[in-house]
Write a structure and sequence with these properties.
The complex is a heterodimer of chains A (about 180) and B (about 80).
Chain A lengths: L4 E4 L8 E4 L4 E5 L4 H16 L4 E5 L25 E3 L2 E3 L3 H4 L4 H15 L5 H10 L3 E5 H6 L12 E3 L1 H9 L3 E4 L1
Chain B lengths: L3 E5 L6 H10 L7 E6 L4 H12 L2 E8 L2 E7 L4
Parallel strand pairs in B: 1-2
Antiparallel strand pairs in B: 2-4, 3-4
Classes of the chains: A alpha/beta (about 180), B alpha+beta (about 80).
Chain lengths: ~180, ~80
């Protein structure tokens, strides 16, 4: 990695701020629910937009985020912090109610409506922007075998790899995240 | 007057930044891009974006609930 720094004038603070020429980032993506899919794709697309080379390693429940057709769901079970704004207040669900049939589907639908209303991008769009920005995506071979997925079910772009592939990438990255 | 304008009103984080990055591809060196946003988080984000990418944030202002940013691509 180059440690060369360039000086960029900063209007807000008036003093020049030194920023390294190029940093790079990797993210291990391990969760595939609607809510947990956001942080990795938001950070990867933004980092790529800021000029960082980015690698995403999709493993375990993160792997299905590479499927062509996404139908992401979330659950309120075991998530006391999940409270939706409703009629001026915030409403959560007691755990016992989250087990009822249809509750997860209803929560997921509510969340998607809310996101749409607030101008939050659908995961499909963020994923597309990551690919457009040349974010490198690695699909975990072991997870593919374990859960019996095929690369044919996945979008075009990801390559196959394992732990060593990721570790090699991580040793060359300045920022390594596990989400 | 800006050379290019991007209307990112109604979009939430990180879309204003992602759209700006895309729009900057069509902005020649030395030209400016004006971005309109309604995301209050974009005020801090465009400062960080410009510091990191070497673009110059010429202006950052607010008119009612619309934030306006003027970004200049560095001369080649």
């Amino acid at each position: 990695m180059s440690t060369e720094a360039q000086f960029v004038s900063d209007e807000a603070h008036s003093a020049p701020v030194a920023v390294p020429a190029t940093k790079s980032m990797s993210i291990i993506v391990t969760k595939g629910s609607l809510d947990w899919a956001y942080p990795p794709f938001i950070l990867a697309s933004t980092a790529a937009a800021m000029g960082l080379p980015v690698t995403m390693f999709f493993t375990f429940y993160g792997l299905p985020l590479l499927l062509k057709k996404l139908d992401l769901q979330l659950t309120a079970a075991g998530n006391p912090a999940m409270k939706m704004p409703m009629m001026g207040a915030h409403m959560g669900l007691p755990n016992i109610l989250t087990a009822l049939p249809g509750v997860d589907a209803a929560c997921s639908k509510m969340m998607k409506n809310l996101m749409n209303k607030k101008g939050v991008a659908p995961i499909e769009d963020l994923r597309e922007m990551c690919l457009d920005a040349d974010v490198r995506m690695i699909a975990c071979q072991m997870t593919l075998d374990l859960f019996e997925y095929s690369l044919d079910d996945m979008i075009e772009g990801p390559e196959l790899g394992g732990a060593a592939t990721y570790i090699e990438c991580a040793t060359q990255s300045d920022i390594n995240l596990f989400i | 007057m800006a050379d290019h304008t991007l209307d990112a009103k109604g979009l939430n984080c990180p879309l204003p930044i992602l759209k700006a990055r895309k729009a900057l591809k069509d902005v020649a060196a030395g030209e400016t891009l004006e971005i309109l946003s309604t995301d209050p988080g974009s005020v801090a984000d465009f400062q960080a974006f410009c510091r990191q990418t070497g673009n110059e944030l010429l202006e950052s202002s607010t008119d009612e609930s619309v934030f306006r940013f003027l970004i200049k691509r560095p001369a080649a």
